[in-house]
Amino acid sequence: MKTERIIGTATPRKEGRDKVTGQARYIDDLSFPEMLYGATVRSRIPRGKIKKINFGPGVAWNEFVVASARDIPGQNCVALIGTDQPCLADGIVNHQEEPILLLAHPEPHSLPNAVAAVSIEYEPLPAIFAMEESEQQSEIIWGRDNVFKSYLIEKGDVDGVWAHADYIVEGEYTTGAQEQLYIETNGVIAQYDPQRGITVWGSMQCPYYVHKSLMTLFDLPQEKVRVVQVETGGAFGGKEDYPSMIAGHAALLAMKSGRPVKIIYNRAEDMAATTKRHPSRTRHRTAVSKDGKILGGEIEFTIDGGAYATLSSVVLSRGTIHAGGPYHWPNIRIRAKAVATNMPPHGAFRGFGAPQSLFAMERHTDRIAHMLNLSPIEIRRRNFLKPGQTTTTEQRINEPIDLEKLLDRALQLSDYDGKKQRFAKENQGSMRKKGIGIAAFLHGAGFTGSGERYLSSLVGVEGQPDGGVRVLVSSTEFGQGTNTVLCQIAAEALGLSYEDVTIAQPDTDQVPNSGPTVASRTAMVVGNLVASAASGLKQTLIRAAMLDESCTPEEFRAACRKYIAAHGELRSFVRYEPPAGIHWDDEKYRGEAYSAYGWAVYVAEVTVDLRTYSVSVDDFVALQEVGRVLHPVMARGQVLGGVAQGIGFALYEKVEWREGRMQNSQMTNYIVPTSSDMPPVRVYFEELGNVHGAFGAKGIGELPMDGPAPAIVNAVEDALGIPFDSIPLLPEDIFAAISKSSAYETSTVSVPL
Amino acid sequence: MTEDSQGKVELSFEVNGEERTVRAYPMERLLDVLRRELGLTGTKEGCGEGECGACSVLMDGALVVSCLIPAAQAQGARIVTIEGAAADTRFRDVQDAFLDFGGAQCGICTPGMILATVHLLQNKPRPTTDEIREGLSGNICRCTGYLQILEAVEDAVRRSSRT
After folding, report:
1. Is the minimum CB–CB distance between A25 and chain B shorter than 8 Å?
2. What distance in Å separates the CA atoms of residue A164 and residue A179, rounded to the nearest whole number?
């Protein structure tokens, strides 16, 4: 029986009132006395040597502060996992839009002309833009072989399965780059003081990532770098690593000028220069028995990392581990690699590699069904992972997950069978072809494998003089609800009211490092630590004989006030301890990849209009099991937002590249869903509970990004009878496929136009 | 409007019920005048080309994107920003509905969304669901998938019809 008072209720968003009244202060809303504005001179070629930098006429250069790689006191890199990416190009550029030079001026409107007046002479070098070129190694542009990282997962005996297979099904699937398109562009303000060091305020997900990179860039000890996250207007992974770059730039200008420096990207710069979702290519070769059981298979998963390593190794890791989907593979071999090209580095975007490999898996599952003349439902039913079976990394499923039950509920909620029959009938002779498609998938919560152990997150809860408590974490709010759910968890753990709990602004001088706000880890991993730290606080009061275990909120607040009056402060910190039974082998890529998974079945209904070749999504059922739902409104909001981004990923969002440079870096021509494009999305949760997360919660942020694209493209195939294996799937692609398909023309020829 | 040595002119208009006079370049964006000269930072810049609606304000009762309005065009106009809408008790239901229904996540599109809602409800106090969709279709939100925003507006309509 659930006895929680606050968990599972829709408490008001902590910073909500400020947001709806326009009072919330984002980075561009802040201004410091004597502040300068910074701008970035960027590469206009994909690869080459910098021969000469000319400061052109018509600009009062004496009014500008100029910083280059030579001004960097420490190591010229954006220190993340590796250190290969320079903060400012020094002698060589490896992609379009690479930062070369920084300018600052008191008047922001003076900057665009000055940036344009800097001309750079290059000696161009051959550049590569496609994964295939990188693999062929016609040019080596990174390391010895253009490979940032590769993984091999092997389970069972794949080579032995082909001889026994009744069918061997092959397919190749690709996904494109996708822009995060947070509505607030990247921005920071930096201040430098020779005694106190650097302070940076900014829009970001991970204050301690920025902190680490600034220490390296400026060769400063940790106490001389302070990073403060201010209200952040969306991120979706896009503010995981790039804020470290901009923070370095603003801090260099601040050091050189002795004044605070603000850098805010305009939309075109943000879209063209910062990271996007990795383009991917996945090849499947699957051995299947005639009764529709997967015997084994090979998956080759390749992503385009761009010019520097950034986060590619970890994006690849997640994509690799999710590549087999929610299915039981008795035998499998997954080869994965992230390759270098002269594109701007690709980075984190909600789902982090999994939407790419799961798109392939879920399209391929439909292909297998088609080949065997089975329904898409039946092929999934016969191959779902069951408790006791193992994943591709040989992680035993210990959760009581019943994917068939999840599937049945999704089918019923979406009226799958009824619609399937009706569409088959109604599509005949119609110019509006309707289809229904399904995707089943999973998403691991938290860092992969040993990741959480290495992060070793630290979380605090402190008593306040008024008797309430404050949560101390570096976990950031950028819309997803961090502030609210962590306060709910602390309030629940302490028996306090939600209003008694506040959360500190993430400031590296004030809060411990609770790890980055990524990987669907905040509610589950950080939330659990908040609950433990809160309990620790209570225990301190009990041990001091100021409180009984069963106390009222009033008694707690009185004890808290009394303790603080007597001892000055009341704080409790808890560090992450890996749950028992979590073993991960980084060499063999084998073991417990995640301490918990979210599971889902999504159903999409589409109409393809044969006059415009456009696809509209008419209905959408999103059913998931994410453990305990901590906040019903926000959990649903996460799913709805993820589905919208998934619809964009599938049908609208295409980055047009020319020579490695984004051509449509505007909201006019990079199209994302509007309110008119959204179908009714019906969101449902199953709750099995999970021993690891706070009050049984698992991660939820990324899961909803994984399923919409394959469900939609499966529905398009259902509508047209034509398979599509690449996204984004635009009207011109559908037009081209229909034009090529002669069989299709004869079947529609009788339709009057 | 005579230009000074910097090329700036004196402009007067009403903002949130108060007469304001500023010195601005005639072609300066109204968005920048509101944010920098008047400190009304609730109006946000999302794209700078009139596509996203984050910088929406009401100008003489019309919903406009302030990134595309030259300052000179605001001379004599009556402007309402999110700060004005937030202080207006008539629109309290809209705020509350956005909070209760999850209509604000990261919050950066929210001021524009709320002004688009206010504009819609002033012109159509009982909009249909399709009219709400249409009324907000000029405002891009990347967090919510819109549905909770649409539900919030429907709820605001219900709340106002009760009173």
Report:
1. yes
2. 44
CA distance A528 to A544: 25
Count CB neighbours of A495 within 10 A: 18
Residues of chain A above pLDDT 90, percent: 95
A280-390+404-447+590-748: CATH topology is Aldehyde Oxidoreductase; domain 4 (3.30.365)
> Which of helix, strand or coil describes residue A679?
coil
What residues have CB less than 8 Å from A455, skipping those under 6 apart?
A447, A515, A516, A576
User: For position A164, what pLDDT does the model report?
Assistant: 94
> Does the residue B113 lie in any domain?
yes
A92 interfacial to chain B (CB closer than 8 Å): no
Residue B163 has pLDDT above 70, yes or no: no
Q: Quick check: B156 and B94 in contact, CB under 8 A? A: yes
What's the structural domain count of chain B?
2
- Give residues 184 to 203 of A whose Cβ lies within 8 Å of B: 184-185
Containing domain of residue B21, as a range? 9-81
CB contact under 8 A, A20 and B81: no
**Where residue A749 falls among pLDDT bands split at 50, 70, 90?**
very low
Q: Indicate if A280-390+404-447+590-748 has the same CATH topology as A34-125+186-264.
A: no
Return the closest-CA partner of residue A322 out of A162, A409, A439, A181.
A439
Residue B123 placed within a domain: yes
Asked if B31 and B78 touch (Cβ cutoff 8 Å), the reply is no
Residues in chain A, how many? 753
The kind and range of the H/E element at A641 are: helix A632-651
Q: Which is the CATH superfamily of the domain at A34-125+186-264? A: Aldehyde oxidase/xanthine dehydrogenase, a/b hammerhead (3.90.1170.50)
Distance CA A644, CA A705 (A): 8
Q: Please tell me the CATH code under which domain A450-575 is placed.
A: 3.30.365.10
Nearest to B136 among A12, A23, A675 (CB): A675
Report d(CA A705, CA A101) in Å as an integer. 37
State whether residue A552 is helix, strand or coil.
coil
For A100-168, what is the HEC assignment? EEEEEECCHHHHHHHHHHEEEEEEECCCCCCHHHHHHCCCCCCCCCCEEEEEEEEECCHHHCHHHCCEE
Contact A184 B104 (CB under 8 A): no
| Residue B105 in domain | yes
Of residues A12, A481, A636, nearest to B99 (C-beta): A12
- Is residue B157 domain-shared with residue B93, that is, in the same domain? yes
- Chain B residues within 8 A of A15 when measuring between CB atoms: 107
| B98 and B150 share one domain | yes
pLDDT-derived band at A743 (thresholds 50, 70, 90) equals low
Write down the domain spans for chain A.
34-125+186-264, 280-390+404-447+590-748, 450-575
Identify the sign of the CA torsion B144, B150, B155, B157.
positive
**Region A215-242 average pLDDT:** 98
Q: Do B47 and A666 touch (CB under 8 A)?
A: yes
This complex has an ipTM of: 0.98
| Same domain? B94 vs B125 | yes
Query: Which pLDDT does position B162 carry in this prediction?
Result: 77
Domain shared by B145 and B94, yes or no: yes
In angstroms, the Cα distances linking A374 to A239, A326, A379, A496, B135 are: 43, 18, 6, 55, 45
Given the residues A702, A717, A732, A745, the one annotated as active site: A702
CA atoms within 13 A on the CB side of A554: 0
A702 counts as catalytic: yes
Residue A457, Cβ density class (10 Å: 0-12 exposed, 13-18 middle, ≥19 buried): buried
Distance from CA of B38 to the nearest CA of A (A): 12
Q: Please identify, among B31, B47, B81, the residue that sits at the C-terminal boundary of a domain.
A: B81
Instruction: Tally A–B CB contacts below 8 A.
Output: 167
Residue with token string 């047209």:
A720
DSSP string, B43-69: S--SSSSSSS-TTEEEETTEEEETTSS
